[in-house]
């Protein structure tokens, strides 16, 4: 007899996973959710998606552009008057949602549209978080994403006074937010000290509120620390980095605050637009 994976679920969860239902758009807990971890099947806990494949498609459901290998099964779905690909958990065959291709939203050109009630989030316990501001976040995002041991990089805003800022707000220069990278990294592969070396090597920390032609407090050089250990390491690395510059380093070292993820078009901006850099 086949194992029953669905009896422990709520009626709403069974309605989707077993009976192939769909939750209302923008109602799911994971629609606007970008923590660092893994998404597993709510019925059988089969690992399905890494959080570094999740993006904001504005479709109303959690969106991923890649699955964990061998975790998904696909079926032709003729319901609704069109041909779609239904996606189900490869272990329990629970309904997850549908997959769409050719929309040109991410570089992988794929969108797994998944019901929040079909999945469950599990945090990665082996990763740490860092946050840096080094001018325009487009180029430095690309640099840090190429560093071995970095699991995920998100661009956004931190350190200011405005709640839920938009890019247009930031461009005014009066929010006191900086353009930043929030980096999830594996300290067993790359240390925080080594991330700091990448930070110092890839921007000019001696120009106050400026990187190249970009001027304003949003472009300031800043390290946001998440622990006292990170604070001490940042202060030490700043002293060491000063020997490489004749002008004094003006980089701020301050406690982290709320990270506001930037609009989706800013994530992986250079890669999405086939740009080598942002001309800094």
Q: Quickly count the helices.
A: 6
Tally of DSSP β-strands: 17
**What is the number of independent domains?**
2
Give unreliable regions as ranges: none
On the 0 to 100 scale, the average pLDDT is: 94
| CATH homologous superfamily identity of the largest domain | Peptide methionine sulphoxide reductase MsrA
- The radius of gyration computed from the alpha-carbon positions, rounded to a whole number of angstroms, is 21 Å
Rough outline:
elongated
Query: What portion of residues belong to β-strands?
Result: 25-35%
The profile of the biggest β sheet is: 6 strands, antiparallel
- The end-to-end distance, rounded to whole angstroms, is 63 Å
What's the layout of helices and strands?
Blueprint lengths: L10 H7 L19 E5 L5 E4 L3 E2 L7 E2 L7 E6 L6 E6 L5 E7 L8 E5 L4 E5 L4 E7 L2 H9 L4 E9 L8 H6 L5 E8 L6 H10 L8 E2 L2 E2 L5 E5 L2 H15 L9 E4 L4 E2 L7 H4 L8
Parallel strand pairs: 15-16
Antiparallel strand pairs: 1-2, 1-9, 3-4, 4-8, 5-6, 6-7, 7-8, 10-12, 10-15, 11-12, 11-17, 13-14
Helix pairs in contact: 4-5
Tell me what you see in this structure.
The protein is an alpha+beta fold and 280 residues long. The chain is built from six helices and 17 strands. Helix 4 (192-201) packs across helix 5.
